[in-house]
Amino acid sequence: MSETAKKIPLIRRSWFAFFSSMRFAVALLCILGIASVIGTVLQQNQPAQNYVVKFGPFWAEIFRFLGLHDVYASAWFIVIMLFLVVSTGLCLWRNIPPFVREMRSFRLQATAKSLSHMKHTAVFSGSLNADTAVRYFQVNGFKTKTERRADGSVVVAAKKGASNKWGYIFAHAAIIVICLGGLIDSNVLLKIGMATGKWVPDQDSVFARDFKPESTVGTGNLSFRANAEITEGQTADVAFINVDKGLLKQELPFSVKLNRFFVDFYDTGMPKDFASDIVVTDKRSGKQTEHTLRVNHPLTVNGITIYQAGYGDGGSPLTLNVHNLNGIGQAVKMEAVSQRQFPLDLGEAGQYRIEFGELRVFNVENLDADNSQTVLHDVRSVKKADKMQNVGPTIAFKIRDSAGQAREYINYMLPLKREGNLFFATGERSSLDEPYRWLMIPADFQSTNHTFMALREVLLLPEKRQAIVNKAVRNVDDKVRPQFRLAVENLLRQFSEGGYVAINNHIKDNVPEAEQEKTGQFMYQILYGAMNIALDEAVAYKRLPEMAAGDERNTFVLNSMDAYTALTRFGSPILLQLADFKQVNMSGLQLSKSPGAAWVYLGSLLLVLGIMFMFYVREKRAWLLFENGQTRFAMSSARDERSLNQEFPEHLDKLERLSRETNTGIT
After folding, report:
1. CB–CB of 443/455 below 8 Å?
2. What is the distance between the alpha carbons of residues 527 and 359, in angstroms, rounded to a whole number?
């Protein structure tokens, strides 16, 4: 280091000036403000697949790379906070000494020339003395100091509100303290631990017992924000932290047992309140604490705060009717559990696996929605409750083939009303980013799908189709009966194989384009008459209640034809219909250990104090210089200029009055 560099004080060096400058600190605060907006708008600490579903794989990867899924614990956010702490600390280091000197100083070095150049200054003559002036200023709340100079002049300096400098100190200190609190609660220790290999996020384990030691964080963790899902009657003593692309298991110093979860709903099915009755048992002392957790009513145990964060299905026993779409016959009862997987052996049709998802007991639908589209809503997405109605339970599931390919389904237990008619709805999609394609099976007069399934079976049985053809041609003239029989046979066979699509393809391939529309209308009329006969055949075959002639029957036939066509395009080898369930609830808890919160509260208090000192404490200074038989009075204020415009003439008038009323000279 050169001799010149050694002589330059630290606070005067260029790098010090840059890092301690207001511009640098304001720039950092702006970046943190923008990041905080992102952290508020984008839901934080969700499983990675949630971001893939919502934003797509490309943006989900961008979010992961930038750490936007956990903004406040991302490396760049922490680095910015560290720089802000350093910048603000250097600013205080540079400014506290002059601030303290300024607060202590009375500026007794003021001269007649300097006072005469002030905006608020005046000269008056009289017999006012320094002691009287001191008492006057003290009565008006000023602190004073008097100096007698060698030339015989006397200066009285007064000040009030010099403590407003504490506002700048408190405000800057508040930023440091708040940032330190944020750093403490930012999972920075976890980040360092993962960077050094001490902890490795788990990406494969399903159960807590499967987590390896390197994926387990002990109870000594300084701060964390973790989640736990507990089913009614179960106990949990660990929680899980979402980090990067995996999870860390966080051990807890206590266990939590969920006795009961309950939720209240509005008439439309919107959740009004949900809460958990829990028992917390301290592992060391065995002390038990019973508490009812509600939203915004948390419980704090051993420095860990437990919040009611959500709820869902905890694995409910299900009863389903299974229709084999590769054959015919009665539906088979299936006993299953939501949130579980079950093998599905269809013999020659293949081996499958059913992966049941969440059972949702309450769902609502917008009754004013355009009926040209089937718009189904989850209860938690409703915004216009006055137009919504609970439409009953749903079960979501996936059917995965032996090659690992899966299609996702959702089935409504109760029939839904569409255009005045009831339908059993099943949605199907091949990927999460696709909308559901809805299979709408018409309900019969008993609100079941038995009649439709019987109609389907009749269409698939060759002997039953032949019986339908025989009845269809019974009253046809003998001359055209053979041709008509052939037409009905072909139509029923084609329709049974592929619905409307098969018939349309046949017309397109075999009929001239100019005749296709007319031929299609004629063939559909024949098909509709045959389907009416098929309905009677199905009802008699399965001994179901008959459907009387009329508009309701005609509508049922047309809807059945649409549903049968859709069923031929259905991608599943089976049709599942939820028949019964026993609801088991799951409570979603968030557990947070935030020792930095106390620092944030302290910083907030300092910030409030700083604002109060800066905006409500006004610094004012006054001088009286007694020199050559004259008295010069001057005042200054750092920010309160408007008030001083009124206050200075008042003080001047009072001091002149005191001067006239005093008979003694300067002492």
Report:
1. no
2. 40
Query: Which two three-digit tokens encode residue 600?
Result: 């944030």
CA angle 317, 319, 322 (to 5 degrees): 140
Query: In 3-state terms, what secondary structure has residue 476?
Result: coil
166: tokens are: 């504490």
**Main-chain dihedrals φ then ψ at residue 451, nearest 5 degrees:** -65, -45
State the amino acid at position 181 in one-letter form: G
pLDDT at 377: 40
Amino acid code (one letter) for 213: P
Nearest to 319 by CA among 338, 342, 336: 336
371 contacts 407 by C-beta, under 8 angstroms: no
Task: Compute the CA torsion angle 83, 84, 88, 94 (nearest 10 deg).
Answer: 30
Q: What is the C-alpha to C-alpha distance for residues 61 and 45, in angstroms, rounded to an integer?
A: 15
Residue pair 170/613 in contact (Cβ under 8 Å)? The answer is: yes
CA distance between the termini of the chain: 58
Residue 6 has a pLDDT of 57
Question: What distances in angstroms separate CA 398 from CA 112, 211, 342, 421, 462, one per listed residue?
Answer: 92, 26, 11, 28, 33
pLDDT of residue 270: 66
Query: Please, are residues 346 and 573 in contact by the beta-carbon 8 Å criterion?
Result: yes
Backbone φ and ψ for 587, nearest 5 degrees, come out as -105, 130
Residues in the chain with pLDDT values less than 50:
1, 369-386, 664-667
Phi and psi at 108, nearest 5°, equal -75, -10
Angstrom distance (rounded) from CA 481 to CA 598: 92
User: What values do phi and psi take at 426, rounded to 5?
Assistant: -135, 120
Q: Give the integer Cα–Cα distance in Å for 577 and 412.
A: 8
Backbone angles phi, psi at 443, to 5 degrees: -85, 145
CA dihedral 642, 643, 649, 650 (to 10 degrees): 160
Element of type H or E holding 254: strand 246-265
Q: For residue 632, what pLDDT is reported?
A: 93
Q: Is 469 exposed, middle or buried (0-12, 13-18, 19+ CB in 10 A)?
A: buried
* Cα–Cα distance, 157 to 261 (Å, whole number): 72
499: tokens are 């619905």
Answering whether pTM is above 0.70, one says no
Whole-number Å distance between alpha carbons of 405 and 300 = 45
> Residue 83: which of 223, 193, 183 has the closest Cα?
183
Give the whole-angstrom CA distance, residue 491 versus residue 506.
Answer: 10
Spatial distance between the Cα atoms of 530 and 650, rounded to a whole number of angstroms = 108
The set of long-range contacts for 363-367, using a CB threshold of 8 Å and a minimum separation of 24, is: 363/269, 363/390, 363/391, 363/392, 363/393, 363/394, 363/412, 364/268, 364/269, 364/270, 364/388, 364/389, 364/390, 364/391, 365/389, 365/391, 365/416
| Contact assessment for residue 170 and residue 603, using Cβ atoms and an 8 Å cutoff | no
Nearest-angstrom CA–CA distance, 196 and 199: 8
Report how far residue 584's alpha carbon sits from residue 313's, in angstroms, rounded to the nearest whole number: 6
| The residue to which tokens 């349309």 are assigned | 504
pLDDT of residue 283: 93
The token pair at 278 is: 């829990």
